[in-house]
Request: fold
Amino acid sequence: MSNWFDRIIKKPRALGITAIALNLIPTWWTFFFFITIPIILLGVVFLFLKPRTKAVYEVPAGILIFGIGFGLLMSVVSIIEIVQI
Reply:
């Protein structure tokens, strides 16, 4: 588990891009924008970070990983709602 997390920490741009992409549809379609907009902003910050020490990235990366999962779930729900309308 730790090795997997360490590999993600060393690639903050990939983490940031994934978080931004998966939270765009829920921001546009649902009322969860108060959760998704901060995740998108944190993803933008991660685009410009250069990893130097692991400790600095552990908490924000954990929040971003949670945001990716939440964004994926909300994207699926949003797409289902869009198709039904």
